[in-house]
Amino acid sequence: MENKNMLMIPGPTPVPEAVLLAMAKAPIGHRTGAFSKVIAELTENLKWLHQTSGDVLMLTASGTGAMEAGIINFLSPGDRVLVGDNGKFGERWAKVAKAYGLNVDVIKAEWGKPLDPEAFTAKLTEDKEKAIKAVIITHSETSTGVLNDLESINKAVKDHGEALIIVDAVTSLGAYHIPIDEWGLDVVGSGSQKGYMIPPGLGFVSVSQKAWKAYETAKLPRFYLDLGKYKKATDEDSSPFTPPVNLMYGLQASLQMMRREGLAAIFARHQRLTKMTRAGMRALDLPLYAADSWASTAITAVAPTLVDAEKIRSTLNKKFDIAVAGGQDHLKGKIFRIGHLGFASERDILTVIAAIEATLIELGVEGVTPGAGVAAAASVMVQG
Ligand SMILES: *Cc1c(COP(=O)(O)O)cnc(C)c1O
């Protein structure tokens, strides 16, 4: 049906009407007093969302740009870095680090499995000369629905003392508790089209005091992504270059919505939606790609055995106007991924599960009890 599309992909995510209306305002000059007030409010609310009193900077970039900025501002050519790779995004940060001439040591785990914190501890304790300058990890690996154990890996980094921890929190920020100051996370990158409930186009990077120290001596080339420029401007409620003014009006509305809901409630909602989704898939005998103990709260990857995942995906699209994501690389056709990040509610989950039930029946999968998935999810919802 026309104009009835339901986005359940891990970005872009659905955008609330209040945000869309806020973005429909006529743009104003970004060097005006009125817009300075907007930047000041955004900065304050971003710090709240990041649970930090440190800097949170806004870039006109997607999440990859935010991460690239997070990597290149604090390191010098030839610096040794450890990169965790258990999916598409971990792989990408290793490529970025290599592109900039860093000396990259990759710690891998199988797709669908979490990174092993012990592997980081081992490399970091061996490094007596403190040659490792940064550890780069993806918290929620969107390609597989795996949530890596950031807290434990960060402890290993803190024991090392020298290395910075640089975190891709693109699908965990606003979906999972990440106490940046309490844990001492140095650099945390995220992007607007994920947990922020606004369209793509803005990237965010939080920067610790320790990272700013490293910035002073870091020698990798930087210009547009030079975070020092963003800090200087942000401290004056301004921006170094022309920012996406209308997107920032949207962000203003979405951060206000988030503050009204509260961080604890936002995290609890994401947990609940994750549990509902997983219960629904189990009740339909659809295997989950990542185990419960390391399930991302942003995305659930499902690995059907009796029918091609792409068939499920295209039927959901054609019959129900529901967009779920497919598998990437070798997982194409093997998994489909249900996004439940940002502006997502129980109603969305019940709907997608009901549509998956009908899809399985339509595709001739035997032994599907109509309503079984929805019943399981509803029962999780009621129990909380
Ligand atoms: C979406 C995403 C990114 C950023 O991708 P962009 O397309 O550049 O916004 C980075 N990391 C993870 C884990 C993501 O899900």
The CATH homologous superfamily of the largest domain is termed: Type I PLP-dependent aspartate aminotransferase-like (Major domain)
% residues in beta strands: 15-25%
Q: SSE order, as H and E? A: EHHEHEHEHEEEHEHEEHHHHEHEEHH
Radius of gyration: 21 Å
The profile of the biggest β sheet is: 7 strands, mixed
Distance between the termini: 33 Å
CATH topology of the largest domain: Aspartate Aminotransferase, domain 2
Shape: globular
Number of strands: 13
Count of helical stretches: 14
User: What level of helicity do the residues show?
Assistant: 40-55%
Question: How many structurally independent domains?
Answer: 2
CATH architecture of the largest domain: 3-Layer(aba) Sandwich
* Major β-sheet strand ordering: 2-10-9-8-5-3-4
Return the average pLDDT rounded to an integer. 97
- Give start-end ranges of low-pLDDT stretches: none
